[in-house]
Give the backbone structure.
Amino acid sequence: MSINTVDIPKADPPLRIALFSDSALPILNGVSISLDALIRGLRQRGHSASLFTARAPGFADPDPHTYRFFALETPWTKDYPLALPPFYPMLRHFRAQKFDLIHTHTPFTLGFVGLRWAQSHGLPLVSTYHTLYDKYAHYIPYFPKRYVRYKIAKHTYFYYNQVDQVIVPSEAARKWIRRHSVRKPVTVIPTGIVRYPSGSPQDLRRSMGASESSPVLLYVGRMAREKNLSTLLRGAAQVMQRIPGAVLWLVGDGPSRDEVVQMARDLGIGDRTRLVGFVPRAEVDRYYAAADLFLFASTTETQGLVVVEAMQYGLPAVVVQGGGAGAAVEDGVNGFLVRNDPEALAEAAGRCLEHPSLYAQLSAGAQATAERFSVDAMVDQVIQVYREALSPGSTPDLAREVATQR
């Protein structure tokens, strides 16, 4: 008697991944949030993920698989500790893990460590291009901004042409990196959104001192020049003239805080503007849940992560065009894309708040949009990129990438 057997395909073996980044929690920005979500998702699927990053002053890691290099804050990298050599003492921890692949999330100090260690150990290298770095040239002192932007462009070209696969969070970022003559395969993978417990919007508003009848305009992000806060505050001031009860909450901190305070005073909205300051990521959702409308004016983003986070709570978004911040915004469906002008921003915000039926439509559209940005989808796509990097014969060429964009 013969027994027919069915071949059961073998599951792909779990991977051991080393992730390198100059920026990671407790520093709060898009890179650190995306990185944390990715690490959690990889581990939930049975993969081993170890983080190599800069030491944060006064922060004790709860995770034994986070390895921190010696780092110092400098006057031009305030709140962003800069990892300093020697780096080789960490090599014993790196080699002990017997990694299959390296994934870098910044192209600078620790991104270069990841690059060199991948080359010296014969490991595939994947890198995520999170940020339009040349938009931050004003943070480099002593040198002309034009020269700094040129050097950043050269560095971008050099670094990302050394890796096996590039991941970007938006189509705008893909186009940007192609303009820097990066010829490696590029995959667009939007960052997945994590939703944290928040509570009842009514209870949150009461606890935060906002009345039921006062529309709350919300911004979440750094207080920094590249965030275009002048347009945002001027637009908010016009909304307040149009809707006398409206207030503005600014969640975040940064080097331009004092300028924002002075601007609010000069615009006569200081008593209706609340500078919340730094808030741990797990608590930011409380502000999303309590607000009514999300405003975002930055044109330097590769992806407006906070825009989609706000949409989870049904907040329509009014976003200035430019960069990748508006990638998730469908005009008239979940918010409005406007030109970089305070009057345009105010007009769109006023329409949202003054027409209840339109607001309800946009709110429902915002929630539907946010559902597409899951962490599970992001992690599945990243793992697929890892598999392609580990199997050079399956690596897509530029022709295939161009075809998928049509």
Summary: The domain at 201-370 is CATH 3.40.50.2000 (Rossmann fold). Residues 402-406 have pLDDT under 50 and may be disordered. The longest strand covers residues 48-54. The chain is about 40% helix and 15% strand.
